[in-house]
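Reviewer 2 asked us to include a model.

Predict the structure of this chain.
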Amino acid sequence: MPNKESSRKRVRQNERRNTRNRAARSDMRSAVKNVATTISAKKSGEDLQKAVRAAQSKLGKASKRKLIKKNKAYRLQSRLMKAANRASKTAA
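Predicted model (structure tokens):
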């Protein structure tokens, strides 16, 4: 345990940030998985588009907040769009 007051404050800040970042990262991963389950359930195009938009938003925000790297966000968004387009073609 730190002795100085500034070090104690730093520990408190890190714990708060860690909790917030973990929740945001989990939310982002859940949104990406939601797209996969929507595709596998063969839901309508509107549901799929809504899920993809939500996942893209979460990925962009995570990238902006430095929870994931920028290129990883781009890569995951690209894969989501490719999968969604493939699913909508097979459904049509």
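The domain at 5-91 is CATH 1.20.58.110 (Methane Monooxygenase Hydroxylase; Chain G, domain 1). The chain has a mean pLDDT of 94. We have added this to the supplementary material.
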